[in-house]
TrEMBL record:
It comes from Sphaeramia orbicularis. This is Purinergic receptor P2X, ligand-gated ion channel, 3b. The gene is LOC115439693. GO terms for cellular component: endomembrane system; plasma membrane; postsynapse. Keywords: Ion channel, Ion transport, Ligand-gated ion channel, Membrane, Transmembrane, Transmembrane helix, Transport. GO terms for biological process: calcium ion transmembrane transport; response to ATP. Pfam families: P2X_receptor. Its main location: membrane.
Amino acid sequence: MFTVTYQVEVRGNICFFSFYLPVEMELGFNIHGFLEAECVVVCFRWVFIHEKAYQITDTAIESSVMTKVKGFGIYNNKVMDVADYVTPTQGASVFCIITKLITTENQVQGYCPEFSCTQDSDCKKHTTKSGSVLTGRCVPINATNKILSVFLLSLFPHRTPMMEVENFTIFIKNSIRFPIFNYTKYIRNFLPTITDAYIKKCNFDKVNNTYCPIFRVGDVVRYAQQNFTKLADKVGVIGIKIGWMCDLDKSDDECNPSYSFNRLDAMSQKNAISPGYNFRFAKYYKMENGTDYRTLVKAYAIRFDVLVNGNLIVRKNSPCGIFCIYLLWLKKAGTQKAMFPYNVT
C-alpha cells in the first residue's frame, strides 16, 4: 500500500466568528490491485488467445470410404470397362486404374522334348527356349525316360496408354465419426442440398462444384499439378485428401469436407530405378481336353489413395480461464480515505 498525506489549512471569518480548519487527506493506492489486473491480462492473452485452452480438439477421426469408377475405353482394339481396368474391384479407399498392359497369353505347363534328365538338378544345366520358362522339375514321360517341365509363353506387349482414362469418373462416399464426442456424419460428403438430378450431371471443380463427390480423373491429375499424358505412360500414385474441420459450437451444416490433391510418389519421378507403379496378375482358363492355361498380365496403373483427416473442436470451461475470472472478482480498487480534524474559534 502506497500512502500519500496532504495537509491543508483553511482560515476565515463568518460574521462574528473566525475559524481555523486544518484538513488532512490521506490517499492510498493498493499495489496488489495493479498486480492482479496485470496477471489477469497476461492470463487472458495466454489462455484464450495463444493456447486456445477454452477448446477441446478431437483429431482421432474414424472414417469409411467407398469408391466407384465409371467409363469405357479402347485398348489393343478391345473395349474395356470397369471390370477390365479397375483393381481391386471392391471399391476400397485405395484402387488402381490400369492404363496399359503387357499380356502373356495361352501360358500352358507342358513338356520340352529337346531336354532329357534324370533328376531335378539337371534342369540347371539348360537354358530356357524363347517363349518358355523352366519349372525346375524333371518329370517322367514313360517308364524309362524323363524330360524337363516348362511353361510355354506367348508375349503380346502393348505399350500405348489407354487415353480414355482421362475422362473416367471417380465417385467417392465418405462417412466419418469423432469418437470422443460420438459425433457422426453418415455419407456426409453429400450436402443436404445435393439431389439425384445434381449428382447425375455434376463433376467436382474448385469454383462452382466444391462439394460434388464425383471427380473426373483428368481434373484430379491436373489439380495434383501433373501432366496426364506423361502420368498415363509412366504411371504413379495420386492422393485425394478429404479434410473435415468441424466446430460443434456452430451449425452442423457448416461441418463440410474440403478436397485437395497431390502426387504421393513424387520422388519416383527423379529416380530411374523402378519408376512408376506396376503389378502382375493372372487369369486362368481350361481347354476342352482339360488342360489348364492362363493369361499373365503385367499392368501399369495410376494408383489413387483416398486419405481422410479432420479435427472436431468443442468449447470448454478452462480451469485457468475460471481462475482469471476469479482474479477479476478479487481485484481490489485503490482505497481512499479522508480525515477532517477541525477547530472552530
